Amino acid sequence: MSHNSFGHLFRVTTWGESHGPAIGCVVDGCPPLIPLTEADIQGFMEKRKPGQSKYTTQRREPDEVKILSGVMVDEDGIQKTTGTPISLMVENTDQRSKDYSEIKDRFRPGHADFTYDAKYGIRDYRGGGRSSARETAMRVAAGAVARKVLQGVTIRAALVQIGPHKIDRSKWDWAQVENNPFFCPDADAAASWADYLDGVRKAGSSVGAVIEVVAEGVPAGWGAPIYGKLDTDLSAAMMSINAVKGVEIGNGFEAATLTGEDNADEIRLDDVGQPMFLTNHSGGVLGGISNGDPLVVRFAVKPTSSILTERKSITSKGEEVDVMTKGRHDPCVGIRAVPVGEAMMACVLADHFLRHRGQVG
Description:
The chain is an alpha+beta fold and 361 residues long. The chain has helices at residues 38-48, 113-120, 136-149, 187-202, 230-239, 260-263, 337-360, and strands at residues 5-6, 11-16, 22-28, 65-67, 71-73, 79-81, 86-91, 154-162, 165-166, 209-216, 244-249, 267-269, 275-277, 285-286, 289-290, 295-301, 311-314, 320-323. The strands form 6 sheets. A 5-stranded antiparallel sheet has the order 1-2-3-7-4, with helices on one face. It is built from 7 helices and 18 strands. Belongs to the chorismate synthase family.
């Protein structure tokens, strides 16, 4: 299986399976002399790890990350990167492969079971193997390293919609994101989501969600106008996250409803004579290059495919069957996709920062 890496100068390769002994990643291209310890990474791992509320899978994984290479302690006792590949590992401690024994030869609707078997002639039925969202834990770890590269850039994400229920954007408060289990910036919406998702969870069903990722402090000039567009790489990064079915930058699909007058981000000079955009319909990117405004990316996550309602399918032998997926699953996988979206934004921006630095000198 190829294509386990992403990025150019800041390059991340992940490895491991959902029910294997461990998962990990190798971060290549991180500059030397950047202070980096496990503690710098662990805080972000805590945001994504399972079992933190009744609204996520009850698989219990501590997700304690270990740095295996790429750092050393200097004469002042500070652990710093050496510029060599950084290898990170997380042990799996709470696998329950027996939960999947009944679907060993059955293709779960909505999952990658059928397509993996069609491509490789084999699949890891234990939680999906490489296709499992468990792999995204290492993206979060890599994203923590990327943030250390991105001095002066702030990356935050929030859940802005669960099922048909959207937040009230006039009530957006970043401080609320850490005060509820949904990473929701609207306290009232979070309260109503709790009751709604509780019903979905008890029914053994699932719903989708929309996540918004915002990066502030990115200067104008990152990206390239043709095949290295910043928004192209951001879109690909978000689309690579498990269960993501749509990505938009700035106004996204809403831009199709606007006139040229409404959509144009007009420019004036600020109080110190610097260019200032009066709106940010573009989401911080023009012609594939950052314009200095906040980068705004949204992505839509489909409902978790593992549900307790039987769905029609077939076996690997061509028999028609009904499939009900048991085990521990997220009623809304979009909740834990919030820190993953932040991580992918960080990795893309670290890559573009290094590419821009290499071009301009």
